[in-house]
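Usage

Read records sequentially. Each one opens with the input sequence:
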Amino acid sequence: MYVAVKGGEKAIENAHDWLDEERRGDRELPRITPEQIDQQLRLAVDRVMTEGSLHDRKLAALAIRQARGDQIEAIFLLRAYRTTLPRFGEAEPIDTAAMQVKRRISSTFKDLPGGQVLGPTFDYTHRLIDVDDDGESAVAAEAEAEEAAAPRVVNLLDREGLIEAEKPAGAETEPADITRTPLEFPAGRDARLQRLARGDEGYLLALGYSTQRGYARSHPFAGEIRHGAVAVEFAPPELGFAIEIGEIDVTECQMITQFSGSETAPPQFTQGYGLTFGFCERKAMAMALVDRALRASDFGEEVTAPAQDEEFVLGHCDNVQATGFVEHLKLPHYVDFQSELELVRKLRREHAGRHAAGASDQSMAAE
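and closes with the structure output:
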């Protein structure tokens, strides 16, 4: 990423002061606190944590304030901080089937075991700005939590063998870690999903949308979207067994797509998968759409669309890298531009010369 530039020290210092002043805004108003951002702009915090690859609500809220609400800048700040943290081990895989569900919907089965839970969603609002939204907020009614199990929809299909079997990595297989090892192609699905989880929400949304419009010819069903709290467990080597060290909120999406079969596989449904920190439903859905599109080669499908091109998708989905490359254009390019300026002048002189010679030849031919 392009980060370094030399310039006038005093000018840069003044620019920093000006930025700080702009960030503070009207000093007659109270300074917004990270706690307020965390509580009242939760979706922004969730996105920054997801694409910043660090679950820390307070730090993410602080980064959003420091970045003046620019989420990509906040993601950059969080990722940079993440690199300073020591790593003392790896948590056990989270069990989303045991999630304390706050929202759970499926577009494939109306009567799910465990029921559908609408949860806090914009889906049924009228999308009208409430100009009087400065009073007391509503308080939702509470009910006793149900103990009923909420199995995944894919498990229901799996009982009949109607969906592709999941292929968990063996215990001896070390999962990829794209934060430590550069991404290589072809990428394993573990590395691919990590890259997509870090990927820019808008970029993935556009690619997922393209698959629905015919590029990659995919129109899946939302098998299940669930959001809630899951336990995080860690197994210290000295203990030899896992202990729960906390809970985090996640959003999980499993898309189901029909597959007509091949010489080796019968007709069945296939899966696309998305997982994010917090409540990032749009991101999780887009991620699942793109994950399925990138699995084209797994099913012998012809690769015809950008969303199926692994190098294109994974190589351009990181918004911090993309921002660095685009925004480096703001840095001084005086020498490069002077060189191109001289070249354009020379080409114009040659072009004018050829044009004048051509006009002279035509005049002589006419005489």
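Summary fields computed downstream for this record:
- The two ends are 63 Å apart (CA to CA).
- The chain is about 40% helix and 15% strand.
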